[in-house]
Every structure is written in structure tokens, then in C-alpha cells.
Amino acid sequence: MRTRHGLPTRISGFSPVMVAITMAKNHLDDNSSPSLEADDRNAAPVGYHDTDVFGREEDHQIQYKTLSWPLVAVLMIAEIVSNGMLSLPSSLAVVGLVPGLVLIIFLGMFALFTSWLLIQFKLRHPEVHNMGDAGYILAGPIGREVLAFGTIVFAVFATGGQLLAGQIALGVLSSNKLCLMLYTGIFAIPTLLFAMPRTLDRLGWLSVVSVFFILISEMRRPNDAMKAAYTLQISATTFYCLFAAITYIYLGPDVASPSFTSLPLKWSKAAYAIAIPNFLMAGSLYSHTAAKLLFIRFFRKSRHLHEHTVIGWGVWVYLIVLMNAAAFVLAIGVPIFNYLIGIAASLFASWYTYGIAGAFWLYDSWVDKGRFEAWKRMWFMCGVSWLTLVAGAFICVAGMYVTVKQVVDAYASGEVSEPFSCS
Description:
The protein has 423 residues and is mainly alpha-helical.
């Protein structure tokens, strides 16, 4: 399962991604939009704080724009370096060590570039808080509803995935002495509680142990967002490559997924104990994201957004409980839920991570720079942007095919258990 900016990578000063970003910056400098001129005092584009979803917050009771770029980087790392990485060693067993590492690095380099495109789009459109808002700019009300729906569905499914990871971890630590549903319920309680704060800075303390637009929307200095993206790619990919390679080399080609289950029992318990805070953080962040999208939709430009009102807090608590309850019921009640997470990732995360970023650049250049003439003049960025759309479509279709085939095979082999089963 992969999220937002997928498999990150170590960045080289002469990498193709750096060349692409450099050329893209040169293209953007040509007739660049005045909205991207820097406001040094606020470290944001001129007029950004007058048009973004939270506005100017100096006198508000609840202030959202409090995140520093290091904390944003840590939150993003906590989101993507989670239970999904446990399948990497088994993937290397299929494609081979060297090809697998090359693929991880390539996808991460690609993700860095699409991160840059997303950040540029956000800075040009401060009113964008989530993918639904971005979809409205691209395709009107239909685009808004489709992308908002996809964000919520994926976030809820991802929360359920973290609950299942917590279930496995608690089961291993206690030698499976309880019903698996109880482990899921036990893990769901702190996940719900830690998702409860209305501002993301209150989640930051968990990550010392996604979502992209939402995180940038709550930054004090939005112009620093790319620093967080670089930190994410370098740190997370280094960890991914080391974890996948070392685990594969020491456990061999028969390594299971999740890979911790291939370890001797005492080491498996130690590994899961260390991983639990990360599962908890990721689950809380995903459910917070799903709730925040709807909360902003309900109360944008309302006093309930920035004041401690009964209605505001009542709706917020209800949304957090609803998202976590939905994730819990799906996790324990749908026998093929693990596969559904893969389907949701193929349908939505492939586009959010790769494909749609190209559409954002194509839209801005079409509207702001002169339509076809702009595309012809900025041929390099135009070509790369179309390639991101093709890549998103390929990952979507290929991922759907593989996951649906796995579902069919699972039913054929009798691996699918009964709903609400303890086993």
C-alpha cells in the first residue's frame, strides 16, 4: 500500500529529477505569475494569507497555520514509512535485489518531481486545502466531488490498514491470546484519541517516536514546503533501501509479507514493539485527514472553524469517531479488506502521487501562460507533465489488475476467512 508521494529516494545533485526541476523553474520564470512573488515577512506568496482557507489568524482562538517545515517533514515520513514498507523485502524476492532497489529509487525521484509540481500549484492557488478543492479548479463541481470522495475513501481505508497492522503487532506481542477483533479494537482506541486534536501541530509529538495539500495549508511558512519534500525523500528512501535490502539479504528469497513475521519470535516481537508508535501515528493522521476535509467543507469561512464553539467541536468529534469507526468496521468485517486497500491505492493514490500533478501544471500553463503557445514554448515541462498522467494511468490499471487477480486467487484457494472472524 502506498500513499501520497510513494517510494522516496536519495537525491543526487546531477539526477534527472534535479535537471527536470531546474528546467521547470526556468520555464516558470518565463512570464511567471505575480502570485508567486515572495512575501518575506510571512514567507508566502503575496496575498497568500488573504485567500487561503484559514485566512489571517492573528486574533483567532484556534490557529491552524502553526507547522514548521521540519515538523511537516516528520509527519510525512511517519505517514509513508509505515506498514507498507514491510512488503518491500518480499517484493525484492520477486524482482531481484538490484532491479528492486533501482525501482524504489526511480519512483522516489519521480515522486520528488511531482511533489514540486503540487507545491507550485498550492502556492499559486492558496484556496486549495485538499484534493477536492484542486479538483474544483480543474473540472468544476464534478472534479471536486470525485477527488474529495477519493481522498476520504483512501484515508479511511488507510486508517483500517494501520489498525490491521496494529492488530498483528499486538497479536505477536501477546502470542495471540485474544480474539483478533479485540486487538483491532484495542488499537483503534488510541488511534481515535490521537486523531482528535483539530490542528496538526498537536499530532507532531507522536512522530518523534497523507494529505499533502492539507499539511501545506497548516504551515507557518508555505514557501518552505519544498524543504520538507527534500527531507522526506532523502530520509525515507534511505531507510526504505536499507530496510528492504538488509531484510531480504538476511532472511532470503522466502521472506514473507509482512517481513517481520519471518523473524524469530523474540526478534519479531521486538520489531513490532518498535513499529507500533508508527502504525499509531499513521492511522491517526489518515483519520484526521478524512475528518478535516469534511470539517473544512462544512465550516469554511465560518466562526466555527476558528472559535471554540459547541457546534464546531461537536461536529469535529463526530467526524473523528465516524472515520475511525468506519475504518474499524471495514478492517474486521470485510475478509478481503487488505485487497480493498490495494484497490483504493490503485484507484486514487496512483493519481494523487503521480498522475494528477502533471494535470495541475498543464492547467496553470494553459490558463496563465497562453494555451497551446505556452505548451509549445515550455515543451520540456509539457512533455514531462503528460508523462506523469500516463504514469498515473499505468500504475492505476496495473495495480487494479494485480489486486483483482489476487482476490480471485484468494477465493479460489480458500484463504478468505468469514466476516468478523477471530482467526
